[in-house]
């Protein structure tokens, strides 16, 4: 599995940047595999009424107009060989780190010209993954097959266009549905990564001088990488919680590590009048399982909103140990502080403390810290020294951040939401 993306060259009218092929097994491929597996579990619990597999080519719909993108998209592909040959494929990906000019031109000339997903497939995948795929274009023509053969791929994704090798587009079969879900996850990922993120999600009014107060030579690049990762982690958590709410109480599947992470950080919904209450919406349910499912769906919605917020132009200010004013708040970074924001006003500024750069935190940990701050900024939550009650956990930003950390295997650096 590979990712192909444009090199960061200047855009000129007559020169197209080369499309780079990424590595198999990277974090985006792992996330796509995980989402595809969960989609297959959803598929087993929902009976889709679709045409027989041999008729699926007839289900292709007329072309759908889509505005051309102004910036190059990454391309991600699913390897044609099986997982047993992953080491060989890793070497092959190293050898073909840049797409050939012929493949590049075929891709650029064909984007937006495929067929849309059949309505039943689109409805299921949109519901299962939690995204709108009405603008996705599917390519199964001779050019798509030839490009996949050149790239040694079963399928690859470029923006909202998915290209399949011969016989691989089979949305009614289990293997075909799994592959399609994998590629559609890349569509969601690339929507989050599209374009020059630092000019869009990191405001041009951000202030972070290089080599000052612990900042590296290119501090905005570090911040951008963490912000990009936070977008994907919040969205991935939203999708997984939505899946889990459907499956955790099914006797065929049972609770997964996603449910365990939710329960570890939030505990059970509180009892109320001989029922169980969704602490976020204050709706009551007859059974504990119903309330848990409702809470996971509410959390899914909140994480999806967090992901969208992180795509805004956020103003980052590297303050070091100086006093600074953010909206209605005056802040001073203490030795162990990593980030800060104001819960009572000015909802698009995050202060970056020196420890963000100097404490050796991974990009995932930095991203989790940003998710924590977004809860202050958007829901005006305060902090608890150690959240313990159901109500405190529901309003503690670190419980949300630590839930993401648990799902992605990262270590939270804030102890204010200990496991139940």
Automatic annotation (TrEMBL):
Gene3D superfamilies: Collagenase (Catalytic Domain). Residues 117-193 form the eCIS core domain. GO terms for molecular function: metalloendopeptidase activity. Residues 1-11 have a biased composition (Polar residues). Residues 1-30, 45-75 are annotated as: Disordered. InterPro entries: eCIS_core_dom, Lys_MEP, MetalloPept_cat_dom_sf. Residues 313-392 form the Lysine-specific metallo-endopeptidase domain. This is Uncharacterized protein DUF4157. It comes from Mangrovibacterium diazotrophicum.
